[in-house]
Amino acid sequence: MSADSPTWPKDSLTWPKLDAKGLSFAIVVARFNSGITEKLLAGAREALSQAGAANTQVFSVPGAFELPFAAKKLATRGGFDAIIALGAVIRGETPHFDYVAGEAARGLQQAGLDTGVPVIFGVLTTDTREQAEARAGGPSGSATDNNKGYDAAMTAIEMARF
Ligand code: INI
């Protein structure tokens, strides 16, 4: 952290002005529920592009359960200022949800703590597909509004500068 790092705004909870120039990011995205995760990916790319990130690489894995392995491998490889993990875990009728969502959250946090590279949790965990769609840009599929991929990328820029 340097003296000019963004600090939490005193008067509001809006995003600090974030500049990603000179930063490199890896986005790792799960293909499971790809109709949702592709929208998260579009949101993340839009945020990084708006903030001036010139070097972003995208990697895909089968499902959210595989995100921690990939994130740790990329963080260990070096060359990335932050890793953004994107996925969508929808509860449905099966206890599988709890294992997949829980291990994705635990493993992604661990990957960041183990490597010292920020690993951002851009994984939706919802009861229904409708709830997931509402958090992936809504009916219009917006890349900027109500898009947790966009928010995850903004978080990545802030933590890369921390
Ligand atoms: N993976 C997801 O990303 N989202 C889900 O909702 C999901 N459900 O519901 O099963 C899911 N399962 C696959 C899992 O992530 C692994 O790819 C699989 O278990 C192989 O390890």
Q: Give, in order, the helices and strands.
A: EHEHEHEHH
Bound molecules: 5-nitro-6-ribityl-amino-2,4(1H,3H)-pyrimidinedione
| Relative strand content | 15-25%
Report on the biggest sheet: 4 strands, parallel
Considering DSSP H and I runs of 4 or more, what fraction of the residues is helical?
A: 40-55%
Biggest β-sheet: strands ordered side by side in the sheet? 2-1-3-4
Q: What is the overall number of helices?
A: 5
Cα distance, first to last residue? 5 Å
CATH class: Alpha Beta
Low-confidence runs (pLDDT<50, min 5 residues)? none
CATH topology, by name, is Rossmann fold
> How many strands appear in the DSSP assignment?
4
User: Considering the protein shown, what is the CATH homologous superfamily?
Assistant: Lumazine/riboflavin synthase
CATH architecture: 3-Layer(aba) Sandwich
The coarse overall form would be globular
Q: Give the averaged pLDDT, no decimals.
A: 92
Number of discrete domains? 1
Query: What is the alpha-carbon Rg in Å?
Result: 15 Å
Structural class, judged by helices and strands?
alpha/beta
